[in-house]
């Protein structure tokens, strides 16, 4: 049984911490989608000192991190990005400061280009490695993605490939050609359908951790709210095992949220059936 919720927010060289019975109130809402659009986080902090509020408003686009967790389970990073906006307003006797963070992974790569010819029979792993390196970003599960990429059932190029242009765009073009999909998550490239460490199954979410029965739409996509799972982000697979719904899915949207003066840390997840994603050629079939 977990206890003692923890939160640590870093904005530039400043830290805001909540541990155990701290009176400091902080609420966060981190939204992600399986797209190339930047993710965003909104964080509210009550009754910051005037000097701290002023320093945030003068900070500019400084680096930010948000970690949450429990005293007995440790903390996990759920957002990395830059400070976009700071707003403070009085609500009754209290001041509430809202900071908006954004993932600047795509902006960081905007000026990075690649011009390289990859001959026929070049290993796909080498092409993916060079393309990710050219973006300047980290490649989550790159080794497994390289090994599982599908190109006429081969692990090598069947024809020469010229990468010439903006690095992120060239990566996008090549991954689609070999049956892989990716998105930017916390300044990292996450390949769809691959769990942490290369696993194709991801975390198991059981009924006791789900707030209400999952809902399913006409296409089989499932939506539910669960106890916090930090690494459940778009592109990651997960297993769902509740009384009404069981199966393997791929996360398409997630929203991590919580309030130090509210209920437990939570995540709202929408996922597509893994089999549907495989049929579309968007994820790797590990079966």
Task: List the topology elements.
Layout: E1 5-11, E2 14-19, E3 26-33, E4 40-46, H1 50-57, E5 63-70, E6 74-91, E7 94-102, H2 105-109, E8 113-118, H3 124-135, E9 138-140, H4 142-148, E10 161-166, H5 167-177, E11 182-185, E12 188-191, E13 204-206, E14 215-216, E15 222-227, E16 237-241, E17 246-259, E18 266-273, H6 274-279
Parallel strand pairs: 9-12, 13-16
Antiparallel strand pairs: 1-2, 1-5, 3-4, 3-17, 4-7, 5-6, 6-7, 8-10, 11-12, 14-15, 15-18, 16-17, 17-18
Helix pairs in contact: 3-4, 3-5
Write a short abstract of this structure.
The chain has 287 residues and is an alpha+beta fold. The chain is built from six helices and 18 strands.
Q: How would you describe the overall organization of this protein?
A:
With 287 residues, the chain is an alpha+beta fold. The protein is built from 6 helices and 18 strands. Strands 1, 2, 3, 4, 5, 6, 7, 13, 14, 15, 16, 17 and 18 form a 13-stranded mixed beta sheet that branches. Strands 9-12-11 form a 3-stranded mixed beta sheet, covered by helices on one side. Strand 3 and strand 4 (40-46) form a beta hairpin. Helix 3 (124-135) runs antiparallel to helix 5 (167-177). The chain is flat and about 70 Å long. Mean pLDDT is 81; it is low at 281-287.
